[in-house]
Each structure stands twice: as structure tokens, then as C-alpha cells.
Amino acid sequence: MMNEYDLIGIDPGLKSTGYGIISIKRKKIFYKASGKITTNPNDYESERLREIFQGLNEIVIKFKPYQAVVEKIFVNVNASSTLALGQARGVAIAALAGHQIEIHELTPLEIKKSVVGTGKANKKQVQFMVKELLHLHRAPESDASDALACAIAWHNKVKFQ
Description:
The chain is α/β, with parallel strands linked by helices. The chain has one domain: Nucleotidyltransferase, domain 5 (2-Layer Sandwich). 47% of the residues lie in helices and 24% in strands. It has helices at 45-63, 79-97, 108-115, 123-133, 142-159, and strands at 4-11, 16-25, 28-38, 67-71, 102-106. The two termini are 12 Å apart.
């Protein structure tokens, strides 16, 4: 593993796909960028998936991350929500894979446990810990924060192996 590289975390969703990029330098983490790709709920699903794909392509071209980590799907009570999430996740993985980026996956439970210390952490707790761990003035919004948490959790997993 390289001594310095950038890692992108992805929190997939059809409505909004969060991304967070951290720089790893000598096993320490630094905030680089974060945000979300928001789609219009009135558009056809195919158009929304294209927007996610295109948005992630642009982000990867701009920041050139070395590795990626994508949050794994959990099954919702609502089957159509689970399907939409799966499609957004697949498009995100395809966009990353198109750039030959090494892709890893973590479950929401693994991410929360790594970043907050408990797998039952809520969104506010995750946002607070992301803010603290990355020394930010304020917590990023939810989707971006979840994506950064994903990246931080992967870094923690690799660092302690």
C-alpha cells in the first residue's frame, strides 16, 4: 500500500448519492472534499441513474482517488426502495470500475461501529464523529457525511490489519 493516496467513499441512493474523499498521509486522514449528486424525482429512473454515473465520473476525473469504498445494501421493508438503492449502487460501482479504481464494500453496521463505536449509531452521531475525526468546523450534510464515514471506516480497517 502506498504511503500517500486518496480514498473515495460512496453512500449510494437514487434520490441522492453522497461522496466523500479523504487523503491518507502516513496512516493519518485528512479531509479533501465531499458532497452529493442529487437527482430529480420527476425524471425517469434511467435519467437519474445516468446523472449519478456522470456525476461520479466527473468527481473521479477531478480528484483521481486511488481506492473506493461503497456502502453495501441493506434490505428495506419496501422492495421498490431496495431495488432503486441497488440500481444506484450498481451505477456507482460501474462508474468507479470504469476508472480501474480498486473497490471495497462495507455494511452500514461496520461503518457505524468503526466511526462511532456502536453499530446502532444514528445519523447525528455519525455526522458528529466525522466532523471531529476530520477536524472540520461543521459537520457535512447527511449523505456526504455517510460517504466520508465509509471512507474513514475503510481506512481504519486497513490501518489496523
